[in-house]
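Review form for a predicted model. The reviewer records the input and the model, then writes brief findings.
Reviewer: anonymous (R2)
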Amino acid sequence: MTQTTLTRAGRPAAPAAAPTGRTAPGDARRWWGLAVLGLSQLIVLLDGTVVNIALPSAQADLGIGDGARQWVITSYALAFGGLLLLGGRIADLMGRKRTFLTGVAGFGLASAVGGAADSAGMLFAGRALQGAFAALIVPAAMSLLTTTFTDPRERGRAFGVFGAIAGAGAAAGLLIGGLVTQYLDWRWCMYIAVPVEVVVLIAAVPLLSDTGRHAGGRLDVPGAVLGTAGLAAIVYGLGEAESRGWGDPLVLGLPAGGVLLLTAFVLWQARAPHPLLPLRIVRDRRRAGALLTAGLAPVAMFGVFLFMTYYLQVVLGYSAVRTGLAFLPLTAAMITGSTQLAARLVPFVAPRTLVVPGLLTAATGLLVLAQAGTGTPYATRVLPGLVLLGLGMGTTMMTVMATATAGVDPQDAGVTSAMVSTAQQVGGAVGTSVLNSVAAGATQSWLAGHPGAPVAEATVHGFSTALWWVAGLLVLTAVPAGILLRSGGPLRGAGRA
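Model under review:
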């Protein structure tokens, strides 16, 4: 397969050039290309969280029930995660630049649909379309990044920037959402992506280049159907637990059916002539550990964004803007963990040296947040918890991203990059559905056991219970991460899958 790079046409980057201390003629263009890819990543991740602060307003405006409100988040995450593998394979087969530009244009149109929503269903549909086109953008962007920055030190810097953008996009979405919701309207949280995507389209045409595509394969449609249907069944079934109860046949049957579909997906991948997910990619021990961590760790971020937004606005009475500002320390901490800790150390140490402490630090932050009450000052509980969570997650996620994509054959770069994002989005979507049900159930139990108690106390109890569960999940995740990610640094001598 001919590699796609960001260098000048006819002068592709060498596959693994050793550092020489000189600046190649195409270097400036490569780094400007990284800026374009980073901006696309920023808007995709920003739109994953920008509606969180607007959610109370959108919920009231469109008459969305408490049990269905999580679908504003999970419809995006489910479409994104469920279609990422297909998007990654499309990028490998059809060309990364072409796939990238298609995704950017479609994402802008889907954002306009969501902003114009006059019903809950239309908003959910707009969010799902955003996720579907994001599934084209992200693997194309990450595979361009992977095949362009092959030198260990440059690759560490590039992934550090990319990881910082990921953290900034997720948390900055909360601040922008607050400003837009308070001073304009919640709909502008959707519309804001449109002009940004126009800028990305204009800049990407001259700065990104495709030197070819892998023409020897075909799209695995049966695999895409099995995988997406399995994930959708699991997430939808778990999402219904809050309103139907955990003993409901639908709540029990759909996840079970989803597991069967995913099992069929794996069996099909082992025999498919052109598999959507070549199993050789996940047979590598370090890559498997990185993907497992990438799927479980984001549950913490999804849960915090959902619960703390409601805690700050509904319980503490913060304005939308003040809520967004309250999340800024989380952004700063994630950038610090990604660029100043992980990016500097990841070429030289075993991945577990960074991932295990990162997970435990994030878990500590969640436990601090779980202690917040109805009258807890921001500075004594919320701020320390957000900082610890950000440092831990920034360090962890940048390391697993670099580890999962290291040493991949060029023809598998797109699907491997997609697998990392799939793990993040699906883990977050499933986690949000479960946590929303856990929090709602704990709130109802509290009210039943404390007749006449303030609703705010019951709500905080529900949030706290969910955060305790997430903290425990991160501690458990540290165990397989410590076992599977124990070899040398991910950017040196990574074996091919």
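Findings: The chain has a mean pLDDT of 77.
Further findings: The first helix runs from residue 27 to 62.
Recommendation: see findings above.
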